[in-house]
Each structure stands twice: as structure tokens, then as C-alpha cells.
Amino acid sequence: MELNNDKLSLIVQRVLLEMNEKNLNKKTRDGIFNTMNEAIEAAEQAYKDLSCMTVSEREKLISSMRKAILDNAMEIADICVKETKMGRKDHKYLKMKLAAEKTPGTEILNTKAYTGDKGLTLIEMSPYGVIGSIIPSTNPAATVACNSIGMIAAGNSVVFSPHPKAMECSLTTIKILNKAIREAGGPENLITSVYKPKLEDTMAMINHPKVRMLVATGGPEIVKIALSSGKKAIGAGAGNPPVLVDDTADIKKAARDIIKGCSFDNNLPCIAEKEVIVVEKVFEFFLEEIRKIEEVYELNEDEINKLLNLVLVEKANNKFTLNKEYVGKDANVILQSIGVNVLKHIECLVCRVPKYHPFVTEELMMPILPIVRAQNFDEALEIALQAEGGNRHTAVMHSKNVDNLTKMARTINTTIFVKNAPSYAGIGFGGEGYTTFTIAGPTGEGLTNASSFTREVRCVMVDSFRII
Ligand code: NAD
């Protein structure tokens, strides 16, 4: 076996994890256990310990976690890419930084009060206890970081079920966060998981009576499993975000923004531009602007067909399954796989396709951007609706026509609707507002934050504490 630097550093990470696991007498395991049952029991104890702390003490833990994420962002980004062989280190670093800086803490938890002749009633946001959080392979570490901040800010502990293919980067992040919590005076094992996670562990976690809430961030299958559990569950599922460009858009800017959003982390984010629909009047102009971008490669018809056979496997009735081998791969690597060698660095492959081409209707998560021509705005909107597939996840539009913008926003009714910017503005990267990597369309929490991980409780005092 050839031992390059990437393989060597993965081996070192694995040995460190194994040493941690075997050292059973060691006082702390930084949250990683042999069995899911042990991980949940430890998290239950940690939740009880956290309940004894004040909210300002909780906020100190959050500050320490933020610092640890920032301090280790590059190292974690590196492990993520080497382990999953998906995405880009520079962009994964930016996602970690975003999670550290823009995930809300305890400040987002609000208490409501009703006062009147009968006294005072408070509505407070109370933790669930132990939360079971399922992590995708496409964005493992930033989701662990962001969910940990939100769930702990809300007063919970969390048991993570990472994707087996993203075990090392997820467990490394958990260990770093637990260390930061301990250093800030917090309980051990506030964040736990299992060494070598398997699908059976996910099911054990879902079914464990001490896990009070489930948060599933992933594809449709796991969201369905979590929602069928009989427990309170948040489902953050798949998207296939369309972009619509109408004839009033700043075409040059639109072309650049779309390529930036589509190629971010090799198109892994569920919010990333997956297909673009352009009205006829500006279609050729838009293509010209796209072609001017150095890092873009336009596929010809033969290359489109080769790529189709490579990345999608056709089942019956025009249904496809994704060849996961190519998810999150660099554009140059994908090109090489169809026999095209381009010497310069390519960020995005673009192709002209008919409106319901599989590249438009399937969520590829690869830096491939299909471009569709529509006769007018209404047809473009209809195509965008079909492509989005009712996920109600994310859509983007480039336009200066307020009526068109409003019509698309209302009709497509997605959780995130970005106007005149790359899609990532929708999660606070270059746009206003906080960030999250768990976007809950199916269950309606939207962009989750600490308050999504709480239950409302009511505290009533009759007659007293009334001033007026
Ligand atoms: P995936 O659904 O294959 O896996 C997600 C998680 O679910 C993993 O931890 C996996 O181990 C677990 N899982 C999947 N099937 C399971 C089963 N049958 N039993 C037990 N556990 C199971 O998804 P992925 O490929 O890792 O991630 C990509 C998908 O996630 C895309 O569809 C993307 O759009 C979506 N996603 C959504 C959000 C969001 O916030 N809405 C964020 C990131 C990713």
C-alpha cells in the first residue's frame, strides 16, 4: 500500500481514537463510548449536571466551545476532506468559522410574560434532556459544532450519531468540544457518541427511552425514520435548490454569484444552487457571462451523456440513484473520469439541458450546474417548482422585478429564499442573520437555533407579583 501524507494522518487520527477507547481506566473519554447505551447514560448524567448551572455559566461553556472550534477549524476541515473524500478544505474551514461565530447561544431564548388582575404567568423555554442528533456525511463537523452550541445553549446534552463514513472528523470535533466544556467548568460527557458508529447504533439511539428528542439532518430516509419514532423529532431533509434568472437581473453579477454558490464545498451543501433556469430574453447573454468565468468548463453533448451515465444509475420509470462515488468531488476529478483532462483549475461544470433532464430533477451534490432555457418568467417558475420537488428547502432568484420576486417567493414557499446573492447568504454567510447547518423544512422549525431545542413550560403565580 502506498503511504502518502493523507493516509498517514488518517492512521494517526485512528490510532489516537483507539488509544482513547482502550484506556478504560482513564478518567475522561471526551464523550466517546463503546456502546450507544453507555453514551446515552453518560449524556443523561451530564444533562442533570448542566441543569444545576445558571444560564450565564452555560453561556461560558458556549464561549469556550466557540473558541475551540475556531482554534481547531483548519485541522478539522483537513480531517473531514481526507476522511470523506468530499468537499474542499478551504470551504470546510469557512463553515467551521461560521458555526463558531454565528450560531446563536443562550441570548436567543426568550421568556414571555402575561400579567393582569390574576397575577403573573411566565412561559419559559425548557430543555428536553438528552437529544439524539443524526449527522450527515456531506457536512459532518460543522453540523456537530453548530448543533452542539444550539442544543447545549438550550440546556440539553446531546448524543450524536455520525455517518460511519464521517466518523473521525465527527468524533474529533466532539472530543474538542468536550474538552472546551470541561475547561470552562462544565460537566463531562455533555456531548457523546460511540466509537465506530454503525447504522444499528442510530436505531438504538432513536429507540432509547432516555433520548427525548431527535434531530435528523440528512436524506429523506433518515428523516422518515426519525419522524416515525413516536418522539418529538426535527427533520432537516434533502433539497434541490433551483435558481431563476429573469430579464431584469444584473446578469454579470448573477452568473458570478451562481457559480460561487454552486461550487461552494463542491456543491455539497443542501442549500447550494443545483440548477438554473433562465428566461429566453437573457439566456444567451447569461451563457456568455458564465463562459467568461475562468474556473468554469462547459460540457458538450457527448460529455453530458458520458457524465449522466457516470453519476446517475437509472432504475425503472425515469427514477435514478446517485453514484455516491462522485458526490462532493472536485470538478477536475469528475472531468477526468469521463476522459477529459483540463490543465487549469475548474470549479464548476456547466451544461445546457432540456427542462426536465435528470441533472435538473436529481440532487447531485456535485459541482455540475445544468442550465435550462425558459420561454418566459411563468414557464421558468413552473420548471423551478418541479425541480425543487416540493422539498420546500431553498430557492434563489436573480431579478430586480419586485412582482416577480414576490411571486416566486410565495409560489415556491421554501424555507430559504435568497434574492440576488449566492445561496450561502441564506445561512448568514454574506447575508444578515444567524447561521445553522440544520435547516428543518419538513417539520417547519426552519433555520434551527437553541429555541428549536426547547419545550415551552408555563409557570403561574396567582395574585402576587402584580404591580398594576
Ligand atoms: P444520508 O441520509 O445518507 O445519511 C444521513 C445520516 O442518516 C447518517 O448519519 C446516516 O448514517 C444515517 N442513516 C441514513 N439511513 C439510515 C438508516 N436506514 N438507518 C440508520 N441510519 C441511517 O445523507 P448523507 O448523504 O450523509 O447527507 C446528504 C443528504 O442530507 C442530502 O440529501 C442533503 O440535502 C441532506 N442534508 C440536509 C440538511 C438540512 O439542513 N436540511 C443539511 C445537510 C444535509
Automatic annotation (TrEMBL):
The keyword NAD applies. It comes from Clostridium mobile. Keywords: NAD. This is Aldehyde dehydrogenase EutE. Residues 35-433 form the Aldehyde dehydrogenase domain. It comes from the Bacteria. The keyword NAD applies.
